[in-house]
Write a structure and sequence with these properties.
The chain is of the alpha+beta class and 330 residues long. It is built from ten helices and ten strands. A hairpin with a 5-residue loop joins strand 8 and strand 9. The protein is globular. The two termini are 38 Å apart. The N terminus is likely disordered.
Length: 330
């Protein structure tokens, strides 16, 4: 997991002095974004303007409305400079180191701009004035991508997604992974609950609290107590504490796609028994469902899933290959 980087190491000294309470990342506003911080919010000239997301202007954060909670903390809907945003407050849990790691991991993708990734607008460890989100490790302000996620789409009471919708959603997720992996970011917690569905029906990958940034020259291995994410979607090599590669996300994608197509839970039973069976006996979600045998797209998905969750990472498709194959399934 990443660790905090002093802002003075990222900025020239004169800029660091101007910006005040800063955070990582120091990134500019996305091209074409509707959110623009007014000129009066800056006092540091052109360079500071390009780095506006390193400062949270708390007085401009209005109308906080709780919309979610979990082990990480709280999520609010709010208005920031007149635009609707989501505000994630990472709380200080019993394991403070893990909480800090989760907060800084949220920023692994913050320098990226892609239609299938939830965009980070600003982040800081500086406490806000509003008492509703005072306590905690840090705050991340993100685009508001909607209240609906794929978990709700899959297991809700509404009509199940059609095959063409499943194909479109899967391509959106693959596009997100392609962009992440091209920038050496591994999500490590891909599952339906972490895929938001916008009002326009576009899937956006969210929640990077378990993510890692891998360096090509480093052999990144992990220990079991470092593993985040959800065990049902975790690649077997992670369960064994082996090297982290982008292909672990492909495994998680496979389980997520299976859920989308079947509307079932991947496994039932005791967690430890499931984990052991996945590693030792190659347990995977069942493919003996009608959806995989009654149509050409279903059979194509079945073949793709078998390769996505292969026990041998090198046999899984890359995100590029995955997207290419999904483009041929409709």
């Amino acid at each position: 997991m990443p660790s905090p980087v002093p802002v003075t190491r990222l900025l020239r000294r004169e800029l660091g002095a101007r910006l005040g309470a800063c955070s990582s990342p120091l990134s500019s506003c996305a091209v074409g974004s509707s959110l623009r911080v007014p000129d009066h919010a800056f006092r540091g000239g052109g360079a500071a303007r390009r780095l506006w997301s390193s400062v949270v202007h708390w007085r401009e954060l209005q109308g906080l409305e709780p919309i979610g909670s979990g082990g990480f903390g709280l999520v609010f809907k709010a208005r920031y400079f007149g635009e609707t945003v989501a505000v994630k407050r990472v709380k200080s849990a019993r394991n403070k180191l893990a909480s800090r790691q989760s907060f800084w991991a949220e920023l692994n993708s913050a320098h990226l701009r892609h239609k299938n990734l939830v965009r980070v607008i600003a982040a800081t460890t500086h406490p806000p004035v509003d008492r509703a989100i005072t306590d905690g490790i840090g705050t991340v302000i993100m685009e508001f991508a909607g209240r609906l996620n794929l978990q709700q789409v899959i297991y809700g009471d509404a009509e199940p997604p059609r095959m063409d919708q499943c194909a479109r959603y899967s391509r959106d997720i693959a596009c997100a992974l392609q962009h992440l992996h091209a920038h050496s970011v591994v999500h490590l917690d891909l599952k339906p609950a972490n895929v938001l569905l916008s009002e326009d029906g576009v899937c956006k990958l969210a929640d990077f609290g378990c993510s890692v940034k891998i360096e090509p020259q480093h052999d990144r291995t992990i220990h079991l107590n470092e593993i985040g994410g959800t065990y049902t979607h975790r690649a077997p090599e992670l369960l064994k504490g082996e090297k982290v590669t982008p292909l672990v996300d492909i495994y998680s994608f496979g389980v997520t796609l299976w859920q989308l197509l079947t509307r079932e839970v991947p496994y039932e039973g005791d967690r430890q028994q499931v984990v052991y069976a996945v590693v030792a006996y190659n347990l995977r979600p069942a493919l003996n469902r009608d959806v995989f045998h009654t149509s050409a797209p279903g059979r194509a998905f079945s073949d793709l899933l078998t390769r996505c969750w292969s026990a041998e990472p090198s046999l899984r498709p890359t995100a590029d290959q995955l997207l290419a194959e999904l483009s041929n399934i409709s």
